[in-house]
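S1.2 Input.
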Amino acid sequence: MERNILLKIEYDGGAYCGWQIQPNVTTVQGEVEKALRRTTGYDIHINGTSRTDAGVHALGQMASFKTECAIPVGRIAFAVNNALPPDIRIVSAKEMPDDFHARFSAVGKQYIYRMKEKVGAFESRYYYEVPAGLDLEKMQRAAAYIKGTHDFKCFQAAGSDIKDSTVRTIFDISIDKVREGTDGENEYTLVVSGDGFLYNMVRIITGTLVDAGRGRIEPDELPRIIESRDRTLAGHTAPPQGLYLAEVYYD
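S1.3 Output.
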């Protein structure tokens, strides 16, 4: 009997060329499908919610697949983890209704972006190193303009395959100093949730807020930048290393 299984997956994206299977490179999806094949004996294709880029991490990537394998759902995570590299882990497995799809049934996602003023050699995969002395209040004022429903084309990188609307709704966005230290040791975290995100949207939002914190963009310019739909008016694209897919929302 065929079952529809939903996996929650966490991974360190530093060693992978993103989530999505591509020819001749190692990807997270490819490694998970390989482990499922070894474990179940079936060729299984998984549908992931987010096609994270190379270097991007996940705390809560979701992926669904249909299978006739007889492994009890409560044992799938344990069995598949034994066949996965240590930087990818199945957190949980759950049986879902037949019409459920990890991507198309999702109603929103949350991302986290982590920044530090000093990034050590062993932290370089996990943080964006930002200049000391960012103006947090300016960054927070700029972020407030992003919340809500807007056409976010200005935050979309070139190369997107989106053919339809670039209107998205940001449910919530916050940027906070999570650790304050001396000698350039401040640490910041951006948390943003919405019903969907354009290509590199979170990274460009992050770069725009950092530019606001450096005084390169005034916070009150954000409405004009968003209304312009012009990518060149927004800030730089932050690197992938600080970005984490944190959570996927379903009804």
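S1.4 Remarks. The two ends are 26 Å apart (CA to CA).
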